[in-house]
Amino acid sequence: MTDGQGEQAKSSVIERLCTVEWDFDWGEVFGKIISRRLLMREYLRRSALWAQAYSAEGAWPFYDITEFMDTDFRLPSDTAHELEKFLRARLSADVKVTCRGAVGLAGLRLHDPAIRAAELPDLYEPLIRLYERGGEFMVDNVGALDLTGVSFRPGSLQGNASNTPIVALRDTVLDALDVEGRVTFYAYDSDRGPAFRRLLPQGGGQRDEVFSGKLGWQPTTQLSTSDGDRGYVRIYDQEAARIIENSVLGVPRFAGPGIDQA
């Protein structure tokens, strides 16, 4: 990455944060529950890896990693001013500290080639994507993460660090996961693909669909969970995300997850 590219990357982080619609319409957020949950889980995984690498375990899961990487680092004055102006917005403390960390890490990477070459996935990108898909999150008084419409406990640092990658940071995959109404994912037992979904729209009824990397979700009559001979099994959102990503990339069904490390 050249200095010019580094400045552009640092600036783009602030630009992305400033263009987030932090007060999303609740109905719109509810339609993105699945992708936001998986993005948060992917952040928790990456946050655990970075915390272990830079002795930030005590601050996990929401922290400014630059405070543990280089205590002398300071953003350029114009960038710092722009960041502080943004942070005056009415946001939760955990959101603010991660936004500060995202801008700071982009700036620190500009000056330290070793950080740019580190074999760690981009720490804050899953959270920025989460913000872009529905605004902020909250932590309730018992430690659960409230993503608007869904909440769960973050688990332990060790448990998250040992997880495999959760979801690809690809808009095609994230968009394919989200839908309004109740949805259940299925796959064919013999090779775990392609991905099917049974949708119960808010207005009533039922719709069965199968995912194609070229056509997206298409109506199907194949799915039948009551006929044991067909072999369809229910799968979790994370498994559906992997199958959908492989379909988008044209990866053979028996291939591994191929999660994007962006």
Task: Give the SSE map.
Layout: H1 3-18, H2 26-30, H3 33-53, H4 66-69, H5 77-87, H6 93-111, H7 113-117, H8 125-132, E1 138-139, E2 145-146, E3 151-152, H9 157-161, H10 171-177, E4 182-188, E5 195-200, E6 207-212, E7 216-219, E8 232-235, H11 237-249
Antiparallel strand pairs: 1-2, 2-3, 4-5, 4-8, 5-6, 6-7
Helix pairs in contact: 1-5, 1-6, 3-8, 10-11
Features:
alpha+beta, five-stranded antiparallel β-sheet, 11 helices, globular, disordered N terminus, disordered C terminus
Short recap of the structure:
Helices cover 44% and strands 13% of the residues. It is of the alpha+beta class and 262 residues long. The strands form two sheets. The chain has a five-stranded antiparallel sheet with strand order 7-6-5-4-8, with helices on one face. Strands 1-2-3 form a three-stranded antiparallel sheet, with no helix packed on it.
Describe this protein's structure:
This protein is α+β, with helices and mostly antiparallel strands and 262 residues long. The protein has two domains: 3-161, no CATH class; 171-249, no CATH class. It is 44% helix and 13% strand. It has eleven helices and eight strands. The protein has helices at 3-18, 26-30, 33-53, 66-69, 77-87, 93-111, 113-117, 125-132, 157-161, 171-177, 237-249; strands spanning 138-139, 145-146, 151-152, 182-188, 195-200, 207-212, 216-219, 232-235. Strands 7-6-5-4-8 form a five-stranded antiparallel beta sheet, with helices on one face. A hairpin with a 6-residue loop joins β5 and β6. α1 packs antiparallel against α6 (93-111) and α10 crosses α11.
